[in-house]
């Protein structure tokens, strides 16, 4: 199958509107330029539309990325379009298909339809592909006009990886024809192999246990890559739905792209899962990584953001010698679909491709109707602008709903009568999501889109039975959100930028303070770093210091109870209840039953006083509307900050 230019790209390039990449321009006879294009973590974002805010936006959407695809093809002689996983779940369109329309055999999922429209060459599975269950997944991928691969999810395990029966093919070898610098055509066999974090067995255990197993990413690569070479693969590209993490390999690691790049025979790595951009400053200083050159273990790599925000690019200049291809030179890039100005303005760099919009127009309109349904009212605004520095109403309503539900579920069980706590985290709290990435629901009607905004993921409710000592350690793990603060110093940065907000669990039903002068007990991965650290102070239950031996039920979700985030006590072994209901559905039922909810924060957690000490934190600029309502902290506005955020000072 030869590479080809679209008519639009051909006309643009021949008219001189789009310059060829230097590799294509200078390739000689026997040399060819191959371009690898990557999308990753699309999460059903086809339209440039925020269904939660119910408005068009310019920062997301495969329809926008599609315009980059046409340009990239026009700049190069030969190109492959590849997806790196997490395409089936992640916005209300995904939920509408899963929960309303369904995916019966023979149906076509809208994101697959859009990808078919663009002519993707291959994709791998991401961890969120498993959120709706295996039948939904398999019926969805059946409609793809391109191979979908994953080497480390297996239906039955053999003695070694190459003897496994995998859920989907572990790899594919594409027979293509490259055009060299002299216009001559040459055959090439391009091997593609895919990987997903083994932690899916924890995160979606209710769907996967007894149906599939996982292998370690690097173990699977070491087994399959030699086999791919034996089958004639000239070059091998890893589609790694796994973040850029430690350089040293440990079995079962979630973010394994660095040791994966070190596997002999892998020539390039397309990464994802982290929702970051590579090459670029996000990974500056990471071991084994050159964040400027765009290499991992010396090999070309890229990570194309998320939701279609960027097109990841790896350019390879290949030379054919003795009937074999070798890489002469390489470059990496992550090309954005928009530019954020110093004044916080967003300027799109491309327009949507009509064919992609039209391919899913019916599902887009149905999703709009789905998210606009009112389910109840709130008599107070629900926002997450200050969720990382004070008890917060958007987290409070989630906790209230979870406690309400688990209290009913415990009736008539041998756990009835134990005190029920509830753990919930703010999902939309800025960070790498940007200055607009916050929950903001005005008082009045609450629609499904608002509930989906409060709780982004289709997690199911779980309950764990743990001790008071576990509760304290759970909170110590959450306390990693904050940097260690030096008493008596002013204007120190409060938040740890490498700590995701979804791991900042607030536990309702107890009261406590965080002493920021102490170091964090746990590192970013949840491993004990400072065993004697004691950030959580004045932890009380029912007005008295918590009894370390007392037992509690904690309402949470399947990700956390399955070990996600590595929280003490939150384990499958301690899980006593696995709900058939999603956390979102529970929130909707709670609102429907209440009619009108009053989710006011109760300030059950605060910072321990540190005299003469101030800290700084950034949040969305629209938070100024609510700054005077924040309880439990002395907060002072400081003005505009970088990348569109707004800065505040807190006196501890």
Automatic annotation (TrEMBL):
For this UniProt entry, what's an example GO CC term?
Answer: outer membrane-bounded periplasmic space
Tell me where it mainly resides: other
Q: Name a biological process GO annotation.
A: nucleotide catabolic process
Q: Where in the cell is it found?
A: Cell envelope
Which cofactor does the UniProt annotation name?
A: a divalent metal cation
Query: Organism source for this protein?
Result: Palleronia abyssalis
Q: Where is the signal peptide?
A: 1-27
Record's protein name: Trifunctional nucleotide phosphoesterase protein YfkN
Recorded hits in Gene3D superfamilies, A to Z, give: 3.60.21.10, 5'-Nucleotidase, C-terminal domain
Which controlled-vocabulary keywords does the entry list? Hydrolase, Metal-binding, Multifunctional enzyme, Nucleotide-binding, Signal
The record's comment on protein family reads: Belongs to the 5'-nucleotidase family.
The record places domain 5'-Nucleotidase C-terminal at: 437-568
Q: Provide the Calcineurin-like phosphoesterase domain boundaries.
A: 35-276
Q: Which reaction does it catalyse?
A: a nucleoside 2',3'-cyclic phosphate + H2O = a nucleoside 3'-phosphate + H(+); a ribonucleoside 3'-phosphate + H2O = a ribonucleoside + phosphate
PANTHER family, from UniProt?
Answer: 2',3'-CYCLIC-NUCLEOTIDE 2'-PHOSPHODIESTERASE_3'-NUCLEOTIDASE, 5'-NUCLEOTIDASE-RELATED
Which terms does the record give in the GO molecular function aspect? 2',3'-cyclic-nucleotide 2'-phosphodiesterase activity; 3'-nucleotidase activity; metal ion binding; nucleotide binding
């Amino acid at each position: 199958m030869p590479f080809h230019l679209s008519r639009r790209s051909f006309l643009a390039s021949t008219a001189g509107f789009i310059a060829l990449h230097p590799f294509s321009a200078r390739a000689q006879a026997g040399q060819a330029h191959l371009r690898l294009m990557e999308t990753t973590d699309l999460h059903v974002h086809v339209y440039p539309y925020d269904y939660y805010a119910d408005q068009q936006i310019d920062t997301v959407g495969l329809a926008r990325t599609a315009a980059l695809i046409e340009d990239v093809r026009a700049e190069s002689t030969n190109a492959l379009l590849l997806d790196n996983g997490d395409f089936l779940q992640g916005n209300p369109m995904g939920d509408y298909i899963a929960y309303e329309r369904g995916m019966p055999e023979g149906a076509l999922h809208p994101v697959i339809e859009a990808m078919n429209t663009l002519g993707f060459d291959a994709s791998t599975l991401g961890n969120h592909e498993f959120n709706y269950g295996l039948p939904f997944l398999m019926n969805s991928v059946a409609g793809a006009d391109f191979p979908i691969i994953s080497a480390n999810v297996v239906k039955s395990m053999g003695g070694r990886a190459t003897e496994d029966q995998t859920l989907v093919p572990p790899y594919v070898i594409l027979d293509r024809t490259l055009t060299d610098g002299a216009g001559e055509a040459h055959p090439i066999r391009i091997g593609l192999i895919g990987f997903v974090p083994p932690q899916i067995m924890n995160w979606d255990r209710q769907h996967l246990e007894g149906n599939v197993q996982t292998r370690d990413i690097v173990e699977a690569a070491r087994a399959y890559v030699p086999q791919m070479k034996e089958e004639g693969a000239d070059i091998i590209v890893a589609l790694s739905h796994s973040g850029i993490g430690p350089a040293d390999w440990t079995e079962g690691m979630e973010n394994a792209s660095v040791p994966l790049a070190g596997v002999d025979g892998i020539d390039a790595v397309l990464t994802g899962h982290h929702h970051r951009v590579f090459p670029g400053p996000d990974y500056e200083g990471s071991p084994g990584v050159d964040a400027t050159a765009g290499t991992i273990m010396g090999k070309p790599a890229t990570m194309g953001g998320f939701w279609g925000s960027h097109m990841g690019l790896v350019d390879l200049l290949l030379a054919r010698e003795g009937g074999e291809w070798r890489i002469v030179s390489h470059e990496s890039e992550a090309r954005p679909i928009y530019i954020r100005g110093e004044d916080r303005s967003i300027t799109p760099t491309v327009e949507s491709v009509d064919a992609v919009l039209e391919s899913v127009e019916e599902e887009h309109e149905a999703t709009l109707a789905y998210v606009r349904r009112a389910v109840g009212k709130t008599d107070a605004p629900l926002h997450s602008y200050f969720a990382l520095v004070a008890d917060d109403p958007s987290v409070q309503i989630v906790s209230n709903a979870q406690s309400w539900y688990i209290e009913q579920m415990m009736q008539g069980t041998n756990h009835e009568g134990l005190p029920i706590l509830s753990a919930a985290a703010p999902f939309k709290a800025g960070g790498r999501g940007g200055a607009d990435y916050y929950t903001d629901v005005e008082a009045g009607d609450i629609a499904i889109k608002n509930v989906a905004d409060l709780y982004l993921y289709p997690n199911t409710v779980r309950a764990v039975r743990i001790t008071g000592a576990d509760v304290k350690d759970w909170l110590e793990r959450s306390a990693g959100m904050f940097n260690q603060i030096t008493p008596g110093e002013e204007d120190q940065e409060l938040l740890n930028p490498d700590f995701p907000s979804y791991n900042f669990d607030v536990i309702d039903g107890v009261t406590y303070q965080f002493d920021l002068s102490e170091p964090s007990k746990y590192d970013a991965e949840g491993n004990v770093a400072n065993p004697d650290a004691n950030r959580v102070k004045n932890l009380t239950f029912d007005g008295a210091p918590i009894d370390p031996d007392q037992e509690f039920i904690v309402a949470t979700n399947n990700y956390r109870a399955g070990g996600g985030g590595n929280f003490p006590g939150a384990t499958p072994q301690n899980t006593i209840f696995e709900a058939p209901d999603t956390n979102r559905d529970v929130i909707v039922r709670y609102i429907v039953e209440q009619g009108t909810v009053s989710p006011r924060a109760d300030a059950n957690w605060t910072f321990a006083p540190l005299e003469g000490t101030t800290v700084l934190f950034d949040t969305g600029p629209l938070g100024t509307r609510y700054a005077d309502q924040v309880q439990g902290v002395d907060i002072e506005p400081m003005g505009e900050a970088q990348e569109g955020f707004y800065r505040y000072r807190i006196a501890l």
